[in-house]
Amino acid sequence: MSDKKYTKEDCIVLLKSKYSQLGHSRFPCRADFSEDEVVAIKAFLGPWPRALEAAGIKPPRDGDRLEKNREKRIRAKRARIAALKTRREDSDGQNGM
Known about the structure:
Shape: rod-shaped
Strand content: under 5%
Largest sheet: none
Distance between the termini: 78 Å
Structural class: mainly alpha
Number of helices: 4
Radius of gyration: 25 Å
Order of helices and strands: HHHH
């Protein structure tokens, strides 16, 4: 293990330089760095995708994600309610015969 102390700026430089070395053909992954470097990058910049965003390598994720998830849950709930109504109507129709 290395005794080198990293700063947030060091971590950003590490990510950017690795991305340049890769020729911008792919995003740098954890395996491209030493264990100490990965620990420092994640400590300062968060989970790997957020670290790539912080370094300007990866475009930021869509800010509407929470709203999209909320809408998806509402659609799913409406579909479940509709399915329950259909089952009830079907069972009521069969019992009445």
